[in-house]
Amino acid sequence: MEDLKSLALLLIGILVAFTVVMTMVAYTVLAERRILGFIQGRLGPNRVGPGGFLQPLADLLKFIFKEDIVPDKSTRFVYFLAPVIATTAALMTIVVYPFGPDIQLPVLGTVRLVVARFDVALLYVLGVTSVGVYGIALAGWSSNNKYSLMGGLRSSAQMISYELALGLGLIGVILQSGTLDLYSIVVRQHVHGFDAGDDALSRRLERSFRAHCSMARRFLFSRQGDPVSVSLCLVAGHAAAVSF
To answer: Coil, strand, or helix at residue 23?
Structure first.
C-alpha cells in the first residue's frame, strides 16, 4: 500500500511540475510579446480573452491542428525523432528541480516539492540538456538539404558554446556549496549570505549578479527559463562577491 501511495505521489508530482513549468513558459512568452509590442509601438496579442490572457491557449490549439509539412527527400524517421529528442531532453530536467521545501499535508503527510533528489542532480542536468544538441543537429541533417544541415550545425555549435560557458560558471557554485545536489545548493544559498543582512555583501552580490548574470544570458543558458538557473546564478554571484 505504501508503495502504491509513493508511486501515486510521484506521478502527481511529475504532472504538477510539468503543468507549472509549461504554464510559466507559455505566459513568459506572452509577456515577452506584449513588451516587444510596447517597445515597437504596437499592441501585441490582446484579442483572445481579457487583455490577451488566453493567447497561450489559442497558440496551443493552433500548433496542434497546424499541418506538418515533411520534405519529400527527408529521412522521415529521424525527421520526426529530432524534435522529440530536443523536447524530451529539456523536460527531463524538471524532475530534479526543487520547487520548495518539504510541506505537511493533513492526509498525505510529508510531501517533498521535488520529484527526484539525488547527489549528482547538477551533473544530471548538464548531461541530459547536452543531449538536446543532437536533436538540433539531426533536424538539420534529416531534411537532406545542405542549407538545413548548415543551419542545424550552426545552432548546435551555438548551444555547445553556451554550455561550455555555463559549465565553467558552475564551478564557483560547486566550490561554494560543496555539493552537486540542487536541493542542497538552494538551501545553502538561502542560509549562507542572502538573509544575513550584510548591506556591503548585498551590494557586492548585486554588482556581481548584474555584471555576470544578465537576464538575456540567463535565458540563453537555461533554454528559456529553467526554474533553478536563477538560484545557481545567484550562488555563483555570491561566490564571486565573497572571493573579491
So the answer is: helix
Length of the chain measured in residues: 244
Instruction: Note the pLDDT of residue 35.
Output: 93
Contacts of the segment 144-150: beta carbons below 8 A, 24+ positions apart: 144/71, 144/73, 144/74, 144/75, 145/71, 145/73
- In the prediction, which pLDDT does 192 show? 59
Domain ranges, residue 23: 1-66
Same domain assignment for residues 72 and 61:
no
Instruction: Choose the final residue of a domain: 43, 66, 89.
Output: 66
pLDDT along the chain (244 residues), means of 10: 72 81 88 92 88 90 85 87 88 82 74 80 88 89 89 89 84 84 80 51 49 44 44 45 39
The span from the first CA to the last CA of the chain, in angstroms, equals 54
* Number of compact structural domains in the chain: 2
Pairing of strands 103-105, 109-111: antiparallel
User: Which sign does the torsion angle of CA 28, 56, 14, 159 carry?
Assistant: negative
Task: Cite the DSSP H helix spans in the chain.
Answer: 2-39, 55-65, 76-91, 121-142, 146-177, 182-191, 199-212, 215-222, 229-243
Q: What is the pLDDT of residue 34?
A: 92
CA neighbor of 162 nearest in space, from 130, 131, 140, 135:
130
In 40-145, where does DSSP find H-type helix?
Answer: 55-65, 76-91, 121-142
What type of residue is 40?
Q
Q: Does the predicted TM-score (pTM) go above 0.85?
A: no
